[in-house]
Amino acid sequence: MSSLSLAVRDSNTMLRRNLLHARRYPSATLNLLLTPMMMLLLFVYIFGDVMSAGIGGAGATRSDYIAYIVPGILMMTVGSTVIGAAVYVSMDMTEGLIARFRTMAVYRGSVIIGHVVGSLLQSIASVVLVGAVGVAIGFRSTDATALEWVAAFGLLTLFALALTWIAVGMGMASPNPEAAGNMAMPLILLPLISSAFIPSDTMPGWFRPIADYQPFTPAIETLRGLLLGTEIGYNGWLAVAWCVGLAALGYLWSMSQFNRDSK
Fold this sequence. Notes:
The chain has about 260 residues and is mainly alpha-helical. It has one domain. The chain has helices at about 5-25, 25-45, 50-55, 60-80, 85-95, 95-105, 110-135, 145-175, 175-185, 185-190, 210, 215-230, 235-260. The radius of gyration is 19 Å and the shape is elongated.
């Protein structure tokens, strides 16, 4: 059997292990989904009428705000779900499983690949679930073409892959699962200070650069442009650049931690 076949076989085994773990403990994934779902329902049904006036003037309605907020919530869902990868990787590190896998006749990177692919699949499933909730409460994307839908799905997948690699690096660098969860909290907090809930140009001047110069805002604006037909501008290239940069950084960080000899 070739080395590539061995790598695929071992990575597939590790992926099944992570998916079985997620199936046996669904409450962990559901807990991570509660934040974006509660934020969606809170801002639509409690603040929807007020917030709609801020994005479209006096003639805007709650349905306008639903269209505005759902793309931001989908990106927030990605950031929330990948925190599980940081916690699970840290659990494997602290319980000695990764150290044991290092001594076994398995492809060395299969453990990390299993975590990354498993987290990516969970992120996609979470986005579909939250998107279904958005559709149920009134979100519609009538102007998007089939190609734009494919591009939107590709952007969400690429963004999830980039954040997953960052989360894996956080998990491997953390001394315990609790610290890993705390270290990954910015992945939930950053969407709160982005353009997910209100346009960044309505924010105070001193705060606007914080919202503009971070990965979530260009990704959210690109997703809005694909689904709602708003102007994307330079946000598309900026979102892809953020995704590629974060994925490369997370990969190098994770592999350097994984290849480091245990003390």
